[in-house]
Amino acid sequence: MCKNRTRKFTFSGGSTFAEASVEPWLKLAAAYPDKLIPVGCMAATVELRGFVDIGDEMAATDAPPLCDVTGFDACDVVRTPAFGVIVYRVELGERVTSGQPIADIVAPAAIGGDARITVHARTDGVVVTRRLKKLVAANQVIAKVAGTEPLSHRKGYLLED
Questions:
Q1: What is the spatial distance between Cα 67 and Cα 45, in angstroms, rounded to a whole number?
Q2: In this structure, how many other beta carbons lie within 10 angstroms of the beta carbon of residue 136?
Q3: Same domain for 1 and 49?
Q4: Number of folded domains that form the chain
Q5: Is 160 inside a domain boundary?
Q6: How far apart are CA 103 and CA 85, in angstroms?
Q7: Quick one: 59 and 76 in the same domain?
């Protein structure tokens, strides 16, 4: 609860996230001084490096790459074959091989052996994205696998298609 009304808050004016999330509550409390209005949230900004903390040696220990840089035409966009619920078999960052099962689509209305449809990787590479929402429509993107070799089916608009 915000019980100490005598504390003075100073804002940087730079529209930081921490200030933007707290400021409306403080303005409400100032507009209605006879009401006890608690600050509705708390926020903190964590600085993970700055302008002067950048260099090859430090960067090498901070973030080793998951894979080498490759072209968009080597990144397989994995789509669902049918409506259903995703059950992943691989984790983000995991290396997969072409033909490896990466997910099952469970069809809620299907019965028996038709209830699960397995989706396979079409290239060797690293799983770089996975869909968070598990309920999917047919032909919806559920993952991306960054490979090293250009894929013949990847043409045109390469971010998704």
A1: 30
A2: 19
A3: yes
A4: 2
A5: no
A6: 10
A7: no
Domain hosting residue 109, numbered range: 72-147
Matching residue, tokens 């006890």: 36
Contacts of 115 (CB under 8 A, 6+ apart): 106, 107
**Which ranges of the chain does DSSP label H, i.e. alpha helix?**
17-31, 56-62
82 shares its domain with 139: yes
Which pTM value belongs to this model? 0.58
Same domain, 60 and 102: no
64: Cβ contacts below 8 Å, ≥ 6 apart: none
Nearest-10 Cα torsion for 62, 64, 65, 67 = -170
In order along its 161 residues, the chain shows pLDDT tens digits of 344 444 455 555 555 666 677 778 888 888 998 988 887 776 666 666 666 667 777 777 766 665 567 778 889 999 999 999 999 999 999 999 999 999 999 988 777 667 899 999 999 999 999 999 999 999 999 999 999 898 888 887 776 65
Question: Are residues 143 and 77 part of one domain?
Answer: yes
Q: What is the CATH number of the domain that holds 90?
A: 2.40.50.100
Amino acid at 70: T
